[in-house]
Amino acid sequence: MEPILEIVELTKRYPGVTAVDDVSFEVYPGEVYGFLGRNGAGKTTTMKVILDLVKPTDGELRLFGNDWRDRRNRARVGYLPEFPVRYPYLTPKEYLRFSANLLGIKRKRLKDLVDDVLERVEMKDSARRRMRGFSKGMLQRVGLAQVLLNDPDLLILDEPTAGLDPLGHRLV
């Protein structure tokens, strides 16, 4: 079986600091791979390199067997950043419809899809409330729903349980 993500000797240097130093690993379909380490250890930087948001200094990366910069791969990846941006004047339902449109999801699938992902993250009861009054945990659940919209082959979640209650931790 071919890995869906392969990183070989990844290094990322910034002026005066090496953020990622010679990291290598593989992730296979169906696996859960977790980065553990102190703050500043390079976990988020590694994720950003995988997503082609940050350019590596050195190393090789393959995503789904291809060069990780291949744009066709992006539709197969769901990413939840550590500090997701939300639109406080929107409801979760509106935000997810907006996100689905950006992903090119067909309009006729939208209603069922949005309802399904809201159900999966246990936010259906709050689907029509404006997000401006949401707790960090509620916003995190909306972010998880957004990541699941396109049924990605690879999820990259940066601090996915931040702000979640114990039930939310179990959900993740």
Give a structural overview:
- The structure is a single chain.
- Helix content is 30%, strand content 22%.
- It is of the alpha+beta class.
- The protein has 2 domains: 5-69, P-loop containing nucleotide triphosphate hydrolases (Rossmann fold, 3-Layer(aba) Sandwich), CATH 3.40.50; 92-151 and 160-171, no CATH class.
- The longest helix has 14 residues, at 107-120.
- The two termini are 26 Å apart.
Topology readout:
Elements lengths: L4 E10 L2 E11 L15 H8 L7 E6 L2 E2 L9 E4 L11 H11 L4 H14 L15 H13 L5 E4 L8 H6 L1
Parallel strand pairs: 5-6
Antiparallel strand pairs: 1-2, 1-3, 3-4
Helix pairs in contact: 2-3, 3-4
Which key terms come to mind for this protein?
two-stranded parallel ribbon, 5 helices, 4-stranded antiparallel β-sheet, globular, alpha+beta
The secondary-structure element order is EEHEEEHHHEH
Taken together, the total number of domains comes to: 2
Structural class: alpha+beta
The 3D shape can be described as globular
Quote the average pLDDT.
Answer: 90
Offer a concise description of the structure:
With 172 residues, this protein is an alpha+beta fold. It is built from five helices and six strands. It has two domains: 5-69, Rossmann fold, CATH 3.40.50; 92-151 and 160-171, no CATH class.
